[in-house]
Amino acid sequence: MSKYYKNTEELYQIYGYFLEKVLGDPKIGPKIAKSGIIIKFIYTDPDAEITIDLKNKPDKEGVYGSFYLGKCDIEPDVWSKQPADHSHRFWHGLENPIAGVTKGIIKQGGKVTAMLKLLPVIKSTFQQFPIILKEIGREDLIVTK
Predict the structure, then answer these.
(1) Rounded to whole angstroms, how far apart are CA atoms 131 and 117?
(2) What one-character DSSP code corresponds to residue 5?
(3) What is the pLDDT of residues 2-28, one digit of tens each?
(4) Which residue ranges form the domains of the chain, and what is each CATH number?
């Protein structure tokens, strides 16, 4: 059972808000978009899928990429499968993705090196995730060391 998420809908609500903020951020969004890849995150407990399209023109104005909550037909360049709780701690800057892969917590496939190149760019979002949780009234989900 997930420590942080009651169900898939709650995960989508939180990650959807987070991705809107990050992909719309004029400092971070363009840097992330430069990767030009499509990433699929597959979560367990609760089961969920989020696809981030940084390859095609965004479907909305003022953002630097599109994202889809739930299954979608877009073919990813790279995918990552992990427990939702591990991802939650990652966005707080508390989990190392490379260590997660070596320990077997995270499974990946496709152009993994392209996704790893995003790590230095997304590190600045670690400070934003707790702020976003506060904005939506979910201070209870903020993780500290």
Answers:
(1) 25
(2) -
(3) 999 999 999 999 999 999 999 999 999
(4) 8-132 (3.30.1050.10)
